[in-house]
Amino acid sequence: MRKNIVAGNWKMNNNLQEGLKLAKDLEAALVGKKVNCDVVIGTPFIHLAPVAAAIDTTKIGVAAQNCADKASGAYTGEVSAAMVASTGAKYVILGHSERRAYYGETDAILKEKVLLALANGLTPIFCVGEVLEEREANKQDEIVNSQIKNALFNLSAEEFGKIVIAYEPVWAIGTGKTATSEQAQEMHAFIRGVLAAKYGEKVADETSILYGGSCNAANAKELFDNPDVDGGLIGGASLGVDKFMPIIEAF
Ligand code: PGA
Q1: Is 186 among the residues known to form the active site?
Q2: Which domain holds residue 163?
């Protein structure tokens, strides 16, 4: 059966001390709680090793928010998938709309990043989603289909079995404007259909598809109650234990 996952994406927030505190506070809040999902936190690169050392990563998985599209070498300022894996992180968020929009990440670049992440034993949390104009032109299915096809459909079924998808409508990210439960379910079912057509029902059925975009304590349960919504990728509401815990507990 596929896993339910609630993953935080801290983005470029929290210095090292603040990040360590947040991770430890979250771990403390989870003690004695029976949670029905995997919990992940996506930290800045420099936090990965100290955070992974400070907490039990079998209880809270640690994710990078990016990795390089090259294995190693003269790429000043970049961080490779192997380096991420060496910190104790188990996941990497790839293709976030902020990386696509502000750092020019294309499907072709993301394809390389996914391969390197998998080669280094990391689980990619691969983000897809349409911008507002595309939604208004009813092109969301076409856009999401091409993002998945162009960056992931070179993978074998076995490789694809290691991918987590996050559907994040760009118009809902950080805007307070969440997709409705129906919009989320509709897109998640569409994505599962795209995966089934390529890799078969079993792989599609076992792929966790997370929703992201202004997901919070008030709307998480309604979103997660949908049959094809297997959790969330949470930005703003992952920056405080008081806001993140109720989302985890929505399962
Ligand atoms: P948000 O961000 O929850 O703050 O909207 C989600 C994301 O970008 O992953």
Answers
A1: no
A2: 5-248
